[in-house]
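Good morning,

Attaching, inline, the C-alpha cells for the sequence recovery test we're adding to the shared suite. The designed sequence is right after.
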C-alpha cells in the first residue's frame, strides 16, 4: 500500500521473501517470463523497472520471489536471452538486490525513480521493458506519466510488458460454501478501505485502450485467475503484506490501529487454513513501440 508515489511496505528480509514468493506464483500462472509474442534477438537490452528485490520486478513495486527453483526475473531472462544481451534492474532502493558478484555478468542494478525524468542516457535504449505491480503507486487513475517514461526508454520496435493486479476483481473465495469466512471478510473490508481511498484503478483494465491512444501497436491483454491449488499460498503472501503495513504505517499513527490490523490478520489466517482465500486477477498487457514512433513528450 502506498500514498502518492510512496512505497509503504517493509524493505527488509521478510519483505524480500514476500516479494520473491510472488514471482513463483505468477510464473505458475503465466507459464512464461517474457511474453511469447516478444521477439528475441541478439544483443538485446532489457530493463526491469521498479524491481522490488531484483528477484522480480521485480514485480511490483507493490511489492512483491527467489523463485523456488533458484530463478529470478532478471536472472531467468538472462538465461533465456542470448549471452550478448544486457539487463538492467531499476529501483529507487537497490539495497535489496543481490550483490553484484552473485548476479550474471550481464545483469546490472541501478538506482532510478521511475516517476522522474528519464536521463538522456536511457532514452531509446531498450528492446524490452518489464514493469509490474504499480497499481498502488499510480495517482489519479492516470498511468500516463510513467507510461510515457517507459515509451521514451524503448527503442523503436521495442516491447513493453506490464504485469498488474486488477484490483477491481479482488474477492473472497471458499473451498466450500459452508466454511465460515466472517473474519476474512472483516480483514478484506478493513484493507479495502485503505486501498480504495487511494483512488480508482480503472486504468488497469483500460491498459489496451491507453496503449493504443499513445501510439503503441500489437497490443495484447491477458487475464489470469489464480488456480485453486495456489490460493492458500497467494493468501499467505497477502497476509504478510498486511502485517507489514500494520507495522510500517499504522503503528506510526498510533491509536492502536496496527494492533487492530494484526488481530484481523491472525483471525483471517485461521479461516484460511480451513479453506478461505482472498484473491485478485493478474493481467499482462504487452505492446510494441512502432518503428516510426516519436518519443512521448
Amino acid at each position: 500500500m502506498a500514498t502518492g508515489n510512496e512505497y509503504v511496505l517493509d524493505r527488509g528480509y521478510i519483505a524480500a521473501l514476500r516479494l520473491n514468493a510472488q514471482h513463483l506464483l505468477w510464473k505458475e500462472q503465466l507459464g512464461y517470463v517474457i511474453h511469447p509474442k516478444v521477439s528475441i534477438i541478439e544483443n538485446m537490452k532489457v530493463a526491469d523497472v521498479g524491481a522490488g528485490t531484483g528477484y522480480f520486478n521485480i514485480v511490483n513495486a507493490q511489492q512483491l520471489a527467489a523463485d523456488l527453483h533458484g530463478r529470478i526475473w532478471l536472472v531467468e531472462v538472462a538465461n533465456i536471452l542470448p549471452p550478448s544481451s544486457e539487463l538492467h534492474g531499476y529501483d529507487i532502493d537497490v539495497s535489496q538486490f543481490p550483490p553484484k558478484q552473485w548476479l550474471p555478468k550481464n545483469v546490472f542494478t541501478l538506482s532510478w525513480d521511475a516517476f522522474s525524468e528519464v536521463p538522456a542516457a536511457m532514452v531509446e535504449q531498450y528492446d524490452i521493458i518489464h514493469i509490474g505491480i504499480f497499481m498502488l503507486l499510480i495517482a489519479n487513475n492516470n498511468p500516463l506519466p510513467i507510461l510515457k517514461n517507459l515509451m521514451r526508454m524503448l527503442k523503436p520496435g521495442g516491447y513493453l510488458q506490464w504485469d498488474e493486479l486488477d484490483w477491481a476483481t479482488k474477492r473472497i473465495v471458499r473451498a466450500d460454501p459452508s466454511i465460515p469466512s466472517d473474519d476474512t471478510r472483516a480483514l478484506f473490508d478493513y484493507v479495502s478501505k485503505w486501498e480504495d481511498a487511494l483512488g480508482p484503478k480503472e486504468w488497469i483494465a483500460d491498459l489496451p485502450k491507453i496503449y493504443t491512444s499513445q501510439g503503441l501497436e500489437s497490443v495484447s491483454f491477458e487475464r489470469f485467475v489464480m488456480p485453486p491449488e495456489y490460493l492458500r499460498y497467494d493468501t499467505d503472501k497477502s497476509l504478510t503484506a498486511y502485517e507489514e503495513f500494520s507495522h510500517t504505517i499504522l503503528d506510526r499513527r498510533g491509536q492502536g490501529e496496527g494492533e487492530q490490523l494484526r488481530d484481523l490478520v491472525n483471525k483471517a489466517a485461521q479461516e484460511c487454513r480451513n479453506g478461505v482465500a482472498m484473491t485478485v486477477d493478474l493481467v499482462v498487457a504487452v505492446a510494441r513501440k512502432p518503428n516510426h514512433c516519436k518519443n512521448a513528450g
